[in-house]
Design a protein that fits this description.
By secondary structure, this protein is α/β, with parallel strands linked by helices. The protein is about 40% helix and about 20% strand.
Length: about 350
């Protein structure tokens, strides 16, 4: 039986989720055994997480890498991503990094060059590519079952906003939230978004506006073949965490996210769908997808599959997010630079 040791940097909310999912990979006896090592500047908390999941705590990133890991998982703040990616690449080990590569496209480009120069392997965490619904929508689209697409509608709404302290450095709603929609639209259709026109509003906590963000936004996107779509997002969806994608074609239509836990209810008389309790967080909604992307990372380490989400993919989605943010600020449509 093969064994893979993953080194996790950062055990905040998403880092703890990754730690849990790394350990859960061992539930499949047909896969390689996976060991967990981790580090975080919050040493006491990191030691506690390591103990909870049967992992090993290391006092620094340098010590973690030197301990003999097979892959590096980065779950720290965005500003730290470039240096940690370089550290993993320099060590000659594959890297998994939560999106984005860096705080913006300009800061990401030197990292892309560095990875290419060193021949590194870096998988970026766009987990929707591993969600069953999105995978089925892509299968149907690629098989021609939908005909030609005339309309695309993507929705991402959080139940409650993150702390304002996070929003002050996140780059804005399009960059920290809708970038997932921009990525999945490119991945699913195989087409580039070439123009964005965005509008936004603030009707919730005034502090969100005071740090330069909006709590609700809508972007009209145009693809390179002329197809149009909308990407909407909100931080105040009290009904639950709502993530959906609708593809309407000349021959058929599909809707990702239409299950018994969707955060909507029918206004029609006698309709009981959906009957379940709505998801409350992104971690609930994409629990399986987060596990699958780490399983894929192990396969990348073992040379069993190609990188399913490259840094170039992530930067392409960030270019669209940057254009959306610029349009939001200027009030005019913005071409997506390449």
């Amino acid at each position: 039986m093969k064994e893979v040791t993953l080194g996790l940097v950062g055990v905040g909310r998403i880092g703890v989720m990754h730690a849990r999912n790394i350990v859960a990979l061992n539930a499949d006896p047909e896969r390689a055994a996976v060991k967990l090592k981790l580090t975080d500047v919050a040493e006491d908390h990191a030691r506690s997480v390591a103990a909870d999941f049967g992992g090993e705590f290391l006092p620094s990133v340098e010590a973690l890498i030197a301990s003999g890991i097979d892959g590096l998982v980065i779950a720290t703040g965005t500003a730290t991503h470039p240096d940690l990616i370089r550290a993993g690449v320099d060590a000659g080990i594959p890297v998994f990094c939560e999106k984005p590569v860096a705080v913006n496209v300009a800061a990401s480009l030197p990292i892309l060059d560095y990875i290419a120069e060193k021949g590194g392997t870096v998988q970026i965490g766009h987990q929707r590519r591993f969600d069953d619904g999105y995978l089925e929508a892509k299968r149907a689209y690629d098989a021609g079952e939908l005909g030609w697409i005339h309309s695309v509608r993507a929705v991402t709404c959080d139940m409650t906003p993150p702390p304002v302290s996070f929003l002050a450095t996140s780059g804005g709603l399009f960059r920290d939230c809708s970038v997932h929609d921009f990525d999945i639209l490119r991945w699913l259709t195989g087409r580039e978004i070439v123009e964005v026109y965005a509008k936004g509003s603030n009707n919730g906590d005034p502090a969100i506006g005071e740090v330069g963000d909006v709590d609700t936004a809508l972007a009209v996107v145009t693809f390179d073949d002329g197809t149009v779509g909308t990407v909407s997002a909100s931080r105040y969806n009290g009904a639950g965490h709502d993530v959906r994608l609708e593809l309407q074609g000349s021959e058929g239509s599909v809707l990702v996210g239409m299950d018994h836990q969707m955060a909507l209810r029918s206004a029609e008389r006698g309709i009981a769908f959906p009957a379940g309790v709505a998801h409350r967080t992104f971690a609930e909604r994409f629990n399986q997808a987060y596990r699958s992307e780490l399983s894929a990372f192990v396969e990348v380490i073992l040379g069993e599959r190609k990188n399913p989400c490259t840094p170039e993919d992530a930067v392409a989605a960030s270019r669209v997010a940057d254009a959306a943010q610029e349009s939001l600020e200027t009030g005019v449509p913005v071409k997506v630079t390449v």
